[in-house]
Design a protein that fits this description.
alpha+beta, 262 residues, Carbonic Anhydrase II, binds zinc ion, 13-stranded mixed sheet, disordered N terminus, 15 strands, globular, two-stranded parallel ribbon
């Protein structure tokens, strides 16, 4: 009874919506249940070279032509418009998702790219940096993930190099969980997110992707050329938790890499 029912419901689905039927078939034949996301990592069998094969949902990781990160070599000088941050100090909510330390942002912080407002959703960190600057990496990189009202994503990247202790990172580092842990609000602790941005706002701009599966494309990337600093001890602490959580650089292909004129 069951197979027949399943086939009949699939057939009616196929008539109504070919894409839905494909999803239903995939759900039936998937080796794990739908709640068990495929395991991906930064090294070994689940490493970046294999991401595209781990799941049908991850195919863009290997087939995509607009992938992130890239080596920021020579940008085309262009009138790329201002990047205006309207970040508010926020109560700290931090999690360790097994791939990085992430701070979730409450509503109210935005970045303006030209005339479009993107709301800050979260920011997180990579060690070492994912982007390269003219072939050279930095110790770390922060990613500030934003979404516009129409669903479009914009990510701002900030390199981090060893130097003075970073006061804006300190409360996050104090609260970050050593092991995978759900989002936790830290009472009485606020984060000055704007203080994590460099003062020199010359930036690179290109169209890219998420740097983790499913590697979704169509994301507007803004990466500042100037790094901010963190103490060697701060960098070491993060590196102890995440010795390597950076995807290797991807080919630029036919994309334009722009550099702001400022
Ligand atoms: Zn990232």
């Amino acid at each position: 009874m069951r197979p027949l029912l399943a086939r009949r419901s699939l057939l009616s689905l196929a008539a109504a919506c070919p894409l839905c039927a494909a999803t239903a078939v995939r759900a039936q034949t998937a080796p794990h249940d739908a709640h068990d996301a495929p395991h991906w990592s930064y090294e070994g069998a689940g490493g970046p070279e294999k991401w595209g094969e781990l799941s049908a949902d991850f195919r863009t990781c290997s087939l995509g032509t607009q992938q992130t990160p890239v080596d920021l070599l020579v940008g085309i000088r262009a009138q790329t418009g201002p990047v205006a941050f309207r970040y508010q100090k926020m109560p700290l909510t931090v999690l360790n998702n097994g791939h990085t330390i992430q701070v979730n942002a409450p509503a109210g912080s935005h970045v303006m790219l030209g005339d479009t407002s993107y709301e800050l959703l979260q920011f997180h960190f990579h060690h070492p940096s994912e982007h390269l600057l003219a072939g050279k990496g930095f110790e770390m990189e922060g990613h500030f993930v934003h979404r516009a009202a129409n669903g479009a994503l914009a990510v701002v990247g900030v390199f981090i190099k060893p130097g003075a202790a970073n006061a804006a990172l300190a409360p996050i580092w104090q609260a970050m969980p050593d092991k995978e842990a759900p989002a936790t609000a830290i009472p009485g602790v606020t984060v000055d997110t704007a203080a994590l941005l460099p003062k020199d706002r010359v930036y690179f701009r290109y169209m890219g992707s998420l740097t983790t599966p499913p590697c979704t494309e169509g994301i507007t990337w803004t990466v500042f050329r100037a790094p901010v600093e963190a103490s060697p001890e701060q960098i070491r602490r993060f590196a102890t938790l995440f010795p390597l959580n950076a995807r290797p650089v991807q080919p630029l292909n036919r994309r334009f890499l722009l550099e702001s004129g400022a």
